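Notebook p. 47: complex prediction with GFB.
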Amino acid sequence: MNKNDKVFVAGHRGMVGSAIVRKLEKEGFNNLLFRTSKELDLRNQAAVEDFFESERPEYVVLAAAKVGGILANDTYRADFIYDNLMIQSNVMHQSYKVGVKKLLFLGSSCIYPKMAKQPLKEDYLLTGLMEPTNEPYAIAKIAGIKMADAYRAQYNCDFISVMPTNMYGPNDNYDLNTSHVLPALLRKFIEAERSDLSEVVLWGTGNPKREFLYVDDLADACLFLMNNFSEKGLVNIGTGKDVSILELAQMIAQITGFKGQIVHDLSKPDGTPRKQLDVTKLTTLGWSASISLEKGLKMVYEEVKNKTWVQHG
Ligand code: GFB
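Predicted complex, structure tokens below:
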């Protein structure tokens, strides 16, 4: 990619899209193209067709998606499958039609079977049953990977798919009903510490293990793969290291200075027991993560420690 190539970042206001924009701008890209969801509803086929025909981007980063934590996935099941299928189908098909030189599709590590062997290698895709809480989202993302491969096979489109692990960083969602675990716990511990509460509630048993990647590392990996990877299939993006949810909570308790009890709400689901990524493919290509969980947690804590949140619902 050249610095003045026209790059459409779909989803530029989300945590991932905004990190990719920061990275591209830092690298000197000066012809970035964005639309807010109000300006362009990516679920609307005709609107996306008009947009691509008039703007004709040369590169596309498909970071627009309906995303959320375990409860949001389980509650808004129809929205998660509909929105994601529509967004990715419209963007990929129009990218093919206007001859986009390369497209990067972002998926998620939840595309792997619930009980797959660990660490998760790329070729474990579609070898078993999915985790029920996020099956609609995962099925949409699997459809995206297969769609990218199909357009590559039939039309020679250079569409690539990357599967990041659980991410965190600037512009994350801190709504306690719809967020992922890391921002939720950060908020809960900060608020508990501020109000001198005696306990913080953790959903589930705390036993599931998750791998966390700082979103600026992800953006760096995406640009690296745009420049260095052109094949069908998928590439995992992660650190290759995971921690239990209880360990994560203890780390956050320490950073925030919370000294009270951690209690469990066992009415909430645990989800997948473990989804540690095998990152051999990515490291062999020449990229590895540089921000440790300890460092990333401190960075994000510094960013939000004085924030006040309003909880809706
Ligand atoms: O991050 P999270 O919502 O999603 O939850 P997943 C991870 C684990 O943390 C689960 C526990 O075992 C939760 O029960 N947990 C503990 C909490 N306390 C909390 C809390 O206060 N809030 C939240 N949200 N969790 C999602 C998928 O799965 O991750 C998506 O549903 C996607 O499809 C995404 O793949 C990355 O890691 O379980």
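Notes: DSSP finds ten helices and twelve strands in the chain. Residues 69-70, 73, 108, 110, 133-134, 137, 166, 179-181, 184-185, 202-204, 208, 210, 245, 268-272 surround GFB (CB under 6 Å).
Next step: compare against the earlier run before touching the bench.
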